[in-house]
């Protein structure tokens, strides 16, 4: 076989790497400012164009924010679902990642979130979930878009009940990306009114399991519903990835 020529690392990439490492390590915190372009040029020993290209990359990745005419340096941004969603969206659309893998990941994620939520939820969490479920019922009478917003809120409330910020961010990113990828198929292949009522019934069962603090049941319900609703869009030969999750006994 033959290999392609290796491209030399561009200077702006090294600048990006150092700033990212400073944020990850905590030496740079959300709300703090980077030095001015001139100071960055001096510290890194690079040209203005290199600094600007590095800042462009960092801003595109939602790591920093700069405003035209602001004399202060770019502001370090807090971690957010928006940045994670961008990364997940690119990954989900990559040729090497199929719908089966994305669905499997969501089954693992939702199953874990439901289990933890059932064990850790408070009375306030239950009230929030009940409100979201009521909003889903009202939304089903108005439009699919209204219903979907309430559905997303219900899943967000479950993630928040876990107390784990990573589950909140990951759940929001994966849920939205997944629906974007499969939206056209749902529109063509399903009766949306029937779907909404089926999902409302499912969410009611999930709420009952969480109220009863039955994490194993809540987790099974989450994974089974995802399989029942979306496995048909996965090539038959790849469904073994999903069935393995259903066959596994959840830890009680």
Give me some keywords for this one.
70% helix, 252 residues, 11 helices, mainly alpha
Q: Secondary-structure blueprint of this entry?
A:
Layout: H1 11-25, H2 37-44, H3 48-60, E1 64-65, E2 75-76, H4 81-92, H5 99-120, H6 123-142, H7 144-161, H8 165-189, H9 192-211, H10 215-230, H11 240-247
Antiparallel strand pairs: 1-2
Helix pairs in contact: 1-3, 2-3, 4-8, 5-7, 5-8, 5-9, 5-10, 6-7, 6-9, 7-8, 9-10, 10-11
Question: How many DSSP helices?
Answer: 11
List how many beta strands DSSP finds. Answer: 2
The profile of the biggest β sheet is: 2 strands, antiparallel
**Strand composition percent:** under 5%
Structural class: mainly alpha
Cα radius of gyration in angstroms: 22 Å
Tell me the strand order in the biggest sheet.
Answer: 1-2
Mean pLDDT: 84
Spatial separation of the terminal alpha carbons: 51 Å
> Helix coverage percent of residues?
over 70%
Spans with pLDDT under 50 lasting ≥5 residues?
none
Shape: elongated
Query: Helices and strands, in N-to-C order?
Result: HHHEEHHHHHHHH
């Amino acid at each position: 076989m033959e290999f392609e020529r290796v491209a030399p690392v561009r200077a702006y990439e090294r600048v990006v790497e150092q700033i990212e490492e400073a944020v990850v390590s905590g030496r740079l915190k959300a709300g703090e400012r980077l030095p001015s372009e001139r100071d960055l040029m001096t510290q890194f020993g690079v040209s203005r164009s290199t600094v600007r290209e590095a800042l462009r990359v960092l801003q595109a990745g939602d790591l920093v924010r700069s405003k035209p005419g602001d004399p202060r340096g770019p502001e370090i941004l807090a971690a957010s679902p928006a940045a994670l969603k961008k990364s997940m969206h690119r990954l989900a659309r990559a040729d090497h990642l199929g719908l089966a893998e994305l669905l499997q990941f969501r089954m693992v994620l939702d199953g874990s979130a439901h289990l933890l939520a059932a064990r850790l939820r408070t009375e306030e969490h239950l009230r929030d979930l009940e409100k979201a479920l009521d909003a889903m019922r009202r939304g089903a009478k108005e439009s699919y878009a209204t219903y979907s917003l309430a559905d997303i809120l219900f899943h967000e409330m479950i993630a928040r009940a876990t107390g784990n910020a990573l589950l909140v961010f990951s759940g929001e990113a994966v849920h939205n990306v997944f629906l974007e990828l499969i939206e056209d198929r749902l529109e063509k292949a399903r009766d949306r009114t029937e779907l909404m009522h089926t999902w409302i019934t499912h969410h009611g069962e999930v709420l009952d399991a969480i109220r009863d603090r039955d994490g194993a049941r809540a987790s099974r319900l989450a994974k089974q519903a995802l399989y029942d609703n979306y496995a048909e869009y996965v090539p038959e030969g790849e469904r073994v990835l999903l069935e393995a999750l259903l066959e596994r006994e959840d830890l009680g």
